[in-house]
Every structure is written in structure tokens, then in C-alpha cells.
Amino acid sequence: MPGVSGRFSTVVKAKISKLLDRAEDPAETLDYSYQKQLESLQNVKKGIADVVTAKKRLQMQSSKLEQSVVKLDTQARQALAQGNEELARVALERKNVAQSELQSLDSQVAELEAQQQKLVDSQQKLTTKIETFRTKKEVIKAQYSAAEAQVRISEAATGVGEEMADVGLAMQRAVDKTEQMKARADAVGELEASGAFDDLTQLGSGEDDIDRQLKELSSTATVDDELAKMKAELGSGTPPDAKQIEGGQA
Amino acid sequence: MIVRISGEGQFELDEARHPRLDELDNAAVAAVERGDEAAFHEHFEALLALVRTEGRLLGDEDLCASDVILPPGDLSFEEAGADFTGEGLVPDRL
Question: Is residue A110, in this structure, part of any structural domain at all?
């Protein structure tokens, strides 16, 4: 059968025969195969732990960013209250960058959550199959002659092997995704370390590289809008009034 | 025939559906080859839908091997392309 499924079937089947690529003696096949299955299940458990770790890392990164957003917002208000509009603008620009990073992190956390759930389901399926195999191999041992047993065993082992190969594929895809997200989290970490979201009171007088980069990154329009909103809030002090002004500008 | 959708499970499908399966399969491949992402998704999803709706899902304690193994439902256009260029989707480890 040509095409995507034929191609895919061939690749998976090659994995299965690699997995079961030993043993002429039925007893040896049974033990070897069962051993392999248990090892594979261990790998899946380890893989799930990796995904959970990656998810926690992203969540930590995310809560840090949340704090930065709140802090930068407060700083912008303070700066504006003191009449320093330039400083307020810088703070809002940084807040924008932090917010867009935050959104992207949140969606990645959700994606990892889904991966994790999928892997847990796969693990459950594989566990059931391995248990079925274990029971079956005892029956086969007791009931069949060596020749018959060989056939029955290879059938059952292929069934489990296919599940193992399939779970292995799911693991690999999850690991690849996790790697991408780790890189992403590291990039955010670097941005943070570079001082992009730092306390503005520590800021020097002039503009540095990061400032210029941040300005390029964030949209001026958003910052202008927010600045206007903040001014309105500070000016009137009452939310209804602020809304009115905001509405008038839109 | 037994068809596995990678990451979902195995389905028992009437042998009579085999030609239709082949048809959608080839259409999906042709779409990848001419770089038509929308058509690829359309045919590939129709292929999976056929198996899911007309097949009977086998239990976890079933140990039979599949006749055909389909890639996972969230297969991207890029992954499908990689599959055909020979790199393959299944990892060497495990």
C-alpha cells in the first residue's frame, strides 16, 4: 500500500522488528520481549516526568512575568503621577513586552498540559497491554508445543511491540516540543536577566540598547493608548469618567 | 482489517473500505507533493474520520498487530513532508 499510511506502517513495523529482533527459542522470546516491554514502560514514565518538569519551568517563568507586569504598571502610574511621562512610557513599553511573552508562555503551558494527558493515556494503554501479554505468555507456556508457541508468541509480542513503538513516537514528539519550549523559556529568562523587566528605579538616565530594542518590539500605539487611559484615570480619579474619555478617543 | 491511528488506538474496519482508504491516502500524499497544505489536511482528516466513524475501536487488552498504521491526527504539513523525504517520524530510540 503506497502513500502516507503505507510509508508510516513500514517505518513503525521496522521499529517493531528491531524491538523483537532476537530469540529463536520461545521461552527466550517471552522473557526478552517482556523485559523490553517493562523497560519501555519505564521510559514512558521518565518521559512524562520530563514533560511535567518543563511545564513547571514555564509556569514559574510565567508567574515571574506576571509580577513584572504588575510592577511595571505600578511604576508607570507612579512616574505619570510625578509628571515624568517619558519614564512612564518606558515602563509601559516594557509591560507590553512582558505581556506578550506571558501570553505565549501561557499557551505553551496549555499545550504541554495536553501532551502530558496524552502520554498518561498512552501509558495506561501500554500497561494494560503488557499485563495482558504477561497473562497470555503463561497460558502459551502451559498449553502449546514449542512450534505453536512460537507463532502465538510472535503474534502477541508484535501487538505489544506496536503499542510500544507507537508510545515511543508520541514520547519523541512530546520531547521535541518540550525542547522548543525550553529554548523559549530560556530566551525569556535571558531577556529578564538582561534587565528588560527590571525595576525602573535602577535605570540610568540615558537610553541603552535594551531600551531601543524594547521600543522597536512594542507597538507605540498600544503604549500611547495605555498612557492616555492612565492619564485619564489619574486626572479624574473615577472609573466612569475614565471610561468616557477612553471611549471618546476610540 | 486492523487500522491503527497513531496515538489513538486500533480500529477494526471492514475490508470493503480498503479502496476508499487507499484513495484518500494517495490524495493526501499527492497534496503534500504539490505543496497544497489545505488539500493535505482535508484528505488526511477525511482519512482519519473514515477510520474513526466506520471502524470499531479495539480494547486496550487486545494484542493484535495492525495491517495499516496511520500517522497521528495532529500531524503537521511539515511533518508529513519529512515523512516522505525519508527521514521518518518514528524515533530510533526505545
Answer: yes
